[in-house]
């Protein structure tokens, strides 16, 4: 067992060190830290505790990357073998479940922990910038490492349970979403429902949930570390609880691996005929869009599930409003409208980037790219149809954003105005978001044609950089165009400004990426 | 080489095709021709350039040099026209395993621009042809390898192409599935399809194909009718004689016949089969006339032919291409 595990472990580490992408990720991360240092140096004379602000940004970025890695990098530890049909070969080679989980998952964890280690020398600089102690830096990194252990092992559990990487990513994403959403939902529910009408046991359980989650909450722990006079001890409950829970997930994965991966008797899963007939329709005139919608994004049933879930979430916001104000309104007042709007925008963003990073990779994983390319369509049309299929799938989020924009208009408008700076308008925020999301999706799609599972973390990195590179010019083009339009008495100034901004960003940023994606797609269809 | 009639447009015409990638010469001045409504075998050792040639013909790869035409359409410039007339079945399983058989075929039918009515009709036909109509609602992931191969073939046929390009269609199939696949291919030829088949199973190719191309290290070693390839390469061919039963002293009697240079009895035979080498200038007919005088119970008399295995070994070089 030891020999098998070490062989697999060293092989995976060797593959990782030979592959260019992990090094690119690490170099990219170091580059981002340098950018952050540069930005902070610019502010150092004007801001108190510049080191603390700098370190907060780095911690947030780390948290984001670790979470995204959970649903992309860690989750494929075992499913990549299942996807390529080589998992049975590992079992035939006499490798025990422990050897497999240890060899396949631990190497990834070690590689990722290295990402934290390489940052340490840079981030110690924050101490010299002021506002933070070395104990805080170490404590924060330990908290992040514990979070990584938890996420990596949760992803391993999903990877052991699910047959494909897609399903494992969906399961892991759902669990992480619940992890973040469950405490506020429970608190909101408790606040909304009168205590007298609720079952005492249920009430007690609901009250315990936020407290239970706060034990392993990375957000709470980081907030605690990064405040003056907080708890700087190195190994706290969060650290031990996260490591313990990670160990539990690892143990369950190992114990259940053989059971979950036993060959099925009928050779494949068969969905109910009636459900299939209901959820599937005959191929559309745009067949690739049909395929993407039904077989990649989950199709009609998942579309309706998302819509239904979105309305429940919206109902939750109404319930919260009723609890807070005691009145029943058709509109969401104040910050609630803005929060609901942001929630659905966040869901849309996650959906878009997930679909973008997976829709081309899905073909590569199934080796269907050359078969698809043989259809008498140009590569551009194939890519556009794929995009259309994914865009249809995000319609529920768009519908809910639309509804929230109407019912929470006042709060959204007010918060947007607070975010605008001189000469800019709230509409500039919207166009900036649209263009940045377009950039993210393009980067994710492109990277998915180069790297197996690192597309999502790399996209998060590049978008973070892209935000600084792109948002400022977008913010400049908008006001400049409006000034020009007003001076020339051009009607519909805002629309004109949107179009000009979108045109320039498309021409200079998105079009080159689109050409790159198309060329890369053609290249992979020939492999 | 195959003679081309002035009126017939070849199904495939490859002229002076060369292709290299990363400094590696995959194809070097490859030329051959495949006539319509024939089955053409394409054989060569691993790494000989078979899949590269197939990818050029099916428009997935642009050749570095030379031309390839499919029914007169240039693969370089008339990509979409070529794709409409060909069906390519790659050597690996590349299927949407989460679809059912019917959904899979319906998707590709729609991708090739067939209407709903056309799809219903054509899918029914190809499912019948490939004997998969009883499994049309099964998920592809639940099918055996042989059945997946049939679905793959059905997919290739769904837009009714004139030319089928099959890369190792029989690999991994059990003997029964292989024989059934060959039957389907014969049926397709009867239906007027041209089939270009790359395979390593030479015994089946020799029975199936009308013509063959042998490629080795990116160069064509032979291209032409199968009969020409299988003819003995010697100037004076050997002849096979088979008798209805074994008889005493036949070998000695045959050796004394006029015009006979040598007679040998192949190993592991029961005294009924003989291999005869005739003297120069003596034809098979001359010998047969002499042979009849002996009043032997002759069951068969035929010119010795090479087996495709032997031809392949003679024409290709030992070792793996570097």
Model description:
Chain A has helices at 2-18, 20-43, 50-74, 76-83, 87-92, 97-123, 125-129, 134-161, 165-192, 200-216, 218-225, 237-260, 273-279, 287-296, 299-325, 334-366, 369-373, 379-393, 395-407, 409-419, 426-448, 455-487, 493-525. By secondary structure, chain A is mostly helical. The longest helix of chain A is centred in the middle third of the chain and has 33 residues, at 334-366. Chain A is globular and about 75 Å long. Chain B is of the alpha/beta class and 322 residues long. Chain B folds into two domains: 12-230, Rossmann fold, CATH 3.40.50; 238-303, Alpha-Beta Plaits (2-Layer Sandwich). Chain B is built from eleven helices and 14 strands. Chain B has a six-stranded mixed sheet with strand order 6-7-8-3-9-10, with helices on both faces. Chain B has a four-stranded antiparallel sheet with strand order 2-1-4-5, covered by helices on one side. Chain B is globular. The chains are: A mainly alpha (527), B alpha/beta (322). Chain A binds chain B through residues 266-271, 273, 276, 280, 282-285, 287-288, 290-291, 295, 366-378, 525-526, and chain B through 55, 58-61, 80, 83-84, 86, 88, 90, 92-100, 103, 106-113, 116, 119, 137-139, 141-144, 155.
